Amino acid sequence: MADPKKLFIKTYGCQMNVYDSERMAEAMGADGYVTTETVDDADMVLINTCHIREKASEKLYSDLGRLRKLKAAKPDLKVGVAGCVAQAEGAEILRRMPLVDLVVGPQAYHRLPEMARAKGQSIDTDFPLEDKFDSLPERAATRGPTAFLTVQEGCDKFCAFCVVPYTRGAEVSRPVDRILTEARGLVSKGVRDITLLGQNVNAYHGSHQGRDLTLAKLLREMAGIDGLQRLRYTTSHPNDMDDDLIAAHGDLPKLMPYLHLPVQSGSDRILKAMNRKHTAEQYLRLIERIREARPDILLSSDFIAGFPGETEAEFEETLDLIRAVGFGMAYSFKYSARPGTPAAEKPELPAEVSDARLQRLQTLLTQQQRAAQEAMVGREVDVLYEKPGRLAGQMIGKSDHLHAVHVDDPQGKIGELVRVRVSASSSNSLAGTRISR
Ligand code: 5AD
Ligand code: SF4
Are residues 168 and 232 in the same domain? Predict the structure, then answer.
């Protein structure tokens, strides 16, 4: 029998892209491809792009440029571009880069195998109505006890800086029964911790027995799955945190005390210019209510430094909001204009101003992250082992609060949920000792 063909995938961007890359690998697996970590061995190279912040198209073109030699040596090499840059600039990519065989947008991944079989260049960047995951094979072996599960895609919010509504399209939710079937399949393969994914996950409204279910109801259904120990969801919009979802944080023990709730800015004028449709005060009130439901919840957020027109005083309002909340984790980005978005029409701040503000944001957020970690020292936490550590006999897993924890445990097994006493905190992780069998 001939050797299987090899597929190399390079993934940029968010967890949704990581999930999509895995599903594309499985779709190609059904067509006889196995994945490889070495690009030179590949019969097919797929670049799964992200358009959200980085200089995405420049990176893509330099990746493609580097593939020229490989394609010259292997004329049968298939080169594909997937993801949000494919969606936004598909035809342009094919024109500029004749070595690209196929361009596939995020809603057309189920067509990938047939496109890979076709001769000549092909492109599919449609937004079909059916669920793309329906036509993909069932999920294969997973990589351990944690998994992501996409429940919703796209976004109707149109924040002034963001390309997602254009590249991922309108918000679509997957039906509840498909999600539950996929989740049960994952659990039967050893998954214990599932993160529900969506660009706007708490706007979820999937159909179930003729009714629409909210994310809170979906989480309640998911919590009923035997063998599933932990649930999380990301990414949420403050305006979609409904009462039932807040309540779920108080009454669903499987729902972990961690919430990523981007606020972007602490200035009402900037929030308005960003089209976020809430004020700083409303966000703070919301945080209060979430903490009432789950006092130990660890909060995480995204921030943008240097949005067009942001004054020094407005930037300081963001620092004030951060001090008022106390985030256990956060991501901060320098504003970068995305062509086609309303904010891209406005004059940008000088790069030195945005750079300096980003630095100040990061300094404060790092201090808060360290403080949240330090506060765990001496406490008992549950840790789900994900992989062996670098040192002999060491295991690494995540706590309920999503802290990475290193545990010296020669008998430890991947997939075990153990009780650990935290003994130390370092820059990005905790260390502890196992105290249960
Ligand atoms: N510039 C900077 N940051 C951005 N984000 C999205 N678009 C931009 C942009 N144009 C950030 C937001 C969002 C996160 C996923 O990426 O903070 O929450
Ligand atoms: Fe982008 Fe999130 Fe705003 Fe949607 S809610 S437009 S995905 S930043």
Answer: yes
